[in-house]
Amino acid sequence: MNTLASTLPALLAPSLGGHWRVRALGRSGFTGTWRADGDGRSLFLKTLPATRADTLAAEADGLAALAASGCVRVPAVAGCWSAEGTALLALDWLELTGAADGARLGRALAALHTAPVAEGGGCFGWRRDNRLGATPQSNSWSRSGGLDGWIEFFARRRLEPLRDALLAGGAPAALAHAIDAVVVALPHYFDDGHLPRPSLIHGDLWSGNHAALADGTPVLYDPAVSVSDAEAELAMLELFGAPPPGFWPAYSAAAGLAPGYARRRPLYQLYHLLNHALLFGGGYRAQSQALAEQLARG
Questions:
Q1: Does residue 204 carry a catalytic annotation?
Q2: Which of 65, 124, 186, 277 could crosslink 142 through cysteines, CB 3.0-4.6 Å?
Q3: Which residues are paired to 44 by β-bridges?
C-alpha cells in the first residue's frame, strides 16, 4: 500500500492534470481509499488491481445514473481509468457531516423512485452488471414488465444467484431448499394487488451509504443500482436500523406507500441477508435460513 501511495500522484496527472498529494484513508468496503489534493481541488479515490477495473467502472456508472436523475446528490465522478496495473475511481471530495436529515432524504428518495425511467422499456434490470459489496450482481433485463417481469427478475437475478454461490461456498442444502421455496411463494406476496413499477434505486442504501453536507443536503454513495421495485430499497434502508427521523412521513407524502409493504419487507431483506451470509458467513447463514423458511410458509 505504501508503494501505491508513492505512485498514485503520477497515475492521476495524465488523466486529471496538475500535481497531487495523496494520503491513505484506509479501506472502505473492499477497495483502497485515498484523499488526493492538488491545484485547489480535492478528490476521494478508490483503487483496485486493474484486473478488477470493472468493479469501479460499474460504481461510476451507478453514480452517473443517480446524478442524471436530478433527484439525489451523489459525489461527482472526476474520472475512472486504469494505469500501471491499478484501477482508479476519482470522485470530487465532499465534506460530509453525518446522517442525512430524514425529511430531506425521504423527499429525495421519493423523487428518485417516482421519476420516469428511460431505460429498459418498462422491464427490470440495468444496462450492466455491478456489485453488491464484493458480490457480483446480475442485472440482465427481465423478459417483460409488470408483476410477472418483477417476479422473474427477483427470482432469477437476485435470489437464485446467491443460492448457487452459497451452495458453492459450502452452505447447507437446507438453506438452498428454503430459498427455492421462497421463489415458489413469490406470487403470494403480491396478492394484495401491489404492482411494482420500474424505479431507479440506489440498491445498497443503508445508514453507512448516506450522509449529509453541512447545509443538510443528503448525499448517497457506494451504489448498486438497478431498475427495481422501490420497496426493495426501503426494505434495505430498514434492515440494519431505522431511517433518520422524519423519513417516513416525507417519503409517504411524496411517493405513497403500499399497505402491503410491511409484509414484503422481509422478502426483500432476505436478498441482503443472503449476501451477508455469502460475504461473512457466521450467524448470517442461520439468520437467512430462518427467514427463508418463515417466508416460504407465508
A1: yes
A2: 124
A3: 35, 91
DSSP assignment letter at 254: H
* pLDDT given at position 100: 84
Find where cell 505504501 sits: 2
Give the active site residue among 61, 204, 222, 229: 204
Containing 171, the helix (H) or strand (E) segment is none
Q: Which residues contact 62 (CB under 8 A, 6 or more apart)?
A: 130, 202, 203, 223, 224, 225
Q: Which helix (H) or strand (E) holds 132?
A: strand 130-132
pTM value is 0.96
Q: What is the pLDDT of residues 173-231, one digit of tens each?
A: 999 999 999 999 999 999 999 999 999 999 999 999 999 999 999 999 999 999 999 99
What gap in Å lies between CA 10 and CA 17, rounded to an integer?
Answer: 10
Q: Which residue has the cell 407465508?
A: 298
Using the predicted structure, report yes or no on whether residue 29 has a pLDDT greater than 80. Answer: no
